[in-house]
């Protein structure tokens, strides 16, 4: 009886040493590629949800941007905000 010496066991053959290392390396690369793909898929969705609130084109959003940029003063901001019904 031969233990561990057959061509398809860990002790010999193509899949014994280098083959298993190649398969392990390819598996590791696939895991890394999968993680990167998931991260690249999730981040734009998070960014789009965040930008909806910051870059909103509604009237109050535009008014807040103008006030933040110093285009209007606080009194004008409050008056315009009241005129818009906020």
Strand and helix map with partners:
Elements: H1 18-54, H2 59-68, H3 74-84
Helix pairs in contact: 2-3
Task: Tag the structure with descriptive keywords.
about 90 residues, mainly alpha, 3 helices, about 0% strand
Describe the structure.
The chain has 86 residues and is mainly α. It has a domain at 56-86. It is built from three helices and no strands. It has helices at residues 18-54, 59-68, 74-84. It is rod-shaped, with a radius of gyration of 31 Å. The protein starts with 17 loop residues before the first helix and ends with a helix. The relative contact order is 0.06.
Strand content: under 5%
* Tally of strands: 0
Q: Would you tell me the structural class of the helices and strands? A: mainly alpha
pLDDT average, as an integer?
77
Counted by DSSP, the helix tally is 3
Overall shape: it is rod-shaped
What radius of gyration results from the CA coordinates? 31 Å
How far apart are the first and last residues' alpha carbons, in Å? 88 Å
State the low-pLDDT regions, or none.
Answer: none
User: Percent range for helical residues?
Assistant: 55-70%
Helix/strand order, N-terminal first:
HHH
Q: Give a quick account of the main beta sheet: strands, pairing sense, barrel closure.
A: none
Summarize the structure.
By secondary structure, this protein is mostly helical. It has helices at residues 18-54, 59-68, 74-84.
């Amino acid at each position: 009886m031969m233990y561990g010496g057959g061509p398809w066991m860990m002790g010999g053959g193509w899949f014994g040493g280098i083959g298993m290392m190649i398969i392990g390396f390819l598996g590791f690369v696939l895991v890394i590629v999968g993680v990167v793909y998931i991260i690249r898929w999730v981040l734009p969705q998070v960014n789009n949800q965040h930008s909806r609130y910051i870059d909103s084109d509604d009237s109050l959003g535009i008014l807040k941007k103008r006030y933040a940029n110093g285009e209007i003063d606080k009194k004008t901001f409050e008056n315009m905000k009241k005129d818009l019904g906020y």
